[in-house]
Predict the structure.
Amino acid sequence: MPARGGEPDLRLEEFGRAVAYMARAAGADWRDPDREPEMMARIRSEERDRIASMGEKYREPADSGRSGEAVYQSVCSHCHETGVAEAPRFGDREDWAELIEEGQHIVTAHGWVGVRAMPARGGHDELSIEEFARAVAHMAKAAGADWQDPSGNATLLGRIRLEEADRRQQLALD
Ligand code: HEC
């Protein structure tokens, strides 16, 4: 069962109504949870516990708010400035052309999960996905893309998360 049935845009209220609908069809007296704030709060609390119990690898640091440029300078530049192990070089349009073509959510997710000589999260587990994604956008922009900071964009972040899940499955990391 993928998170949210594979629809990152689905709101918890909508998801909850669909679950209640299915349960009623099987004889339960479950009501639409969004009419009951207390039930919504219980669902949210169970969601938090569930994420916490899924283990270290799912626990991610909160967004520290560092800019893409700051993260790039402190972490990514070590390889991406000069192109260590064929890392796409900062500001090099040729190196970035195919990646930019591929799309922001895909390239961000692949870097986050790790690809060939690119270590997951650039080898820095303390990075939040928002910080990482801002650093990717910063690099793509330097190569001419118009990629924006995805951290305030729930739809784009959701697409990155979906691609991350697909990629992990492909690589059998889970
Ligand atoms: C230890 C070296 C190293 C560090 C540090 C590093 N990268 Fe990379 N990165 C690579 C290499 C090598 C590749 C090329 C991988 C390939 O395609 O073979 C790469 C590729 C990528 C890609 C392209 C992924 C794709 O879809 O092919 C992205 C995005 C990326 N890095 C982002 C980052 C960000 C953001 C940081 C800093 C947080 C970072 N990298 C830090 C080595 C590094």
In short: The pocket of heme C is lined by residues 71, 75-76, 78-80, 84-88, 99, 107, 110-111, 115-119, 122-123, 127, 132, 135-136 (CB under 6 Å).
